[in-house]
Design goal:
Blueprint (H helix, E strand, L loop, with lengths): L1 H7 L8 H18 L27 E7 L2 E6 L9 E6 L4 E4 L7 H11 L4 E4 L11 H5 L4 E3 L4 H8 L8 E5 L4 E6 L8 E5 L4 E5 L6 E3 L3 H16 L5 E4 L26 E2 L1 H14 L8 E2 L4 E3 L2
Parallel strand pairs: 4-5, 5-6, 10-12, 11-15
Antiparallel strand pairs: 1-2, 2-3, 3-4, 7-8, 8-9, 9-10, 12-13, 14-15
Length: 304
């Protein structure tokens, strides 16, 4: 596995830039070789990104992008919530799973998802329990055919059959669409990641995205990211998709927290290479939580 190669070739705990680049290229080549077995999709989309004057903003409440015919990415309007989270919808032949209920309480998200899935039952899951990912729980809970996952480690365990938290692997089957579920606490105690075997999408919530990676429990987070990297190294990864965009298109430059207008955003998708980079950075930092934020080109480690 690449993860073992990365660790095994370190000198004094550090990899040379050339060696790391070679290993990352090898990893991505392996993923490309496996990619023909994945159902493809497109991220050719211009995301709505707020406005300098939100009183003049004409964006809809939700932007719905079809990654493919059974996979949807939904963004909430940044003028309605500066968090502008991304919500994911995966549809199988028998049922569907949505990940997160957004940052504003509204029936619009539930209704949009119900239109997309028709009469299929819906498992309304959460990447984790923070308010900007569960604000519309009530409308989802009130809808027929919807099972809402509780925002606790026990709730995640029960919904996905995770026998041992956080080290066990959970699963969901939507009908010809198996999902793997990993417990990745650290940003928040009930945090999970979801891997879709059909598309190769790895959904990482607030644990990895192009922005400020707020870390509440340093020890748990480091262990979670390492476990996630090990898993990803053993599976074909098309894209790593998180819950927000906060970085600009310029390396290491992040928008100030709370920004409502992001005209020069980083792309939503990250890659296996960035996950490896994060894991390696955490290992190099060691068990002691740093006292200040550390900027990387595509994310910022923020241990506040």
């Amino acid at each position: 596995m690449l993860e073992r190669a990365l660790r095994g070739t370190s000198v004094g705990g550090c990899l040379s830039a050339a060696r790391r680049a070679a290993l990352v290229v090898a990893a991505l080549a392996g993923c490309r070789a496996a990619a023909p077995g994945l159902v493809p999709g497109t991220l050719d989309v211009h995301w709505m990104h707020g406005a300098a004057d939100c009183h003049q903003n004409t964006d809809p409440e939700l932007q719905i992008h079809a990654y493919n015919a059974t996979t949807y990415i939904i963004r909430q309007n940044k003028c309605l919530t500066f968090e502008a989270p991304f919500i994911y919808l995966l549809i199988g032949t028998r049922s569907a799973l949505s990940l997160d209920t957004g940052a504003i309480e509204t029936p619009a998200l539930r209704d949009a998802i119900k239109r997309l899935i028709g009469d299929k039952p819906l498992l309304a899951a959460h990447s984790h329990g923070h308010g900007d990912h569960k604000a519309s729980d009530a409308p989802f809970a009130a809808a027929a055919g919807v099972t809402l996952v509780a925002n606790t480690p026990a709730g995640q365990q029960a919904a996905f059959g995770i026998a041992a938290w956080p080290d066990g692997l959970g699963h969901a089957e939507l009908g010809d669409r198996p999902l793997d579920v990993l417990a990745i606490p650290g940003h928040e105690a009930s945090h999970i990641a979801i891997y879709d075997r059909q598309t190769g999408l790895l959904l990482t919530g607030d644990s990895l995205y192009p922005g400020l990676l707020f870390i509440r429990d340093w020890t748990a987070y480091c262990a979670s990211i390492h476990r996630l990297a090990q898993f990803a190294n053993a599976h074909p990864i098309a894209h790593v998709l998180g819950a927000h965009i906060e970085m600009t298109s310029k390396p290491k430059v992040v928008y100030p927290y709370g920004t409502i207008y992001q005209p020069d955003e980083h792309a939503l998708a990250l890659t296996l290479a960035q996950l490896i980079e994060l894991d390696d950075a955490l290992i190099q930092l060691g068990p002691t939580k740093p006292t200040q934020a550390i900027a990387h080109d595509d994310f910022v480690i923020d241990p506040t």
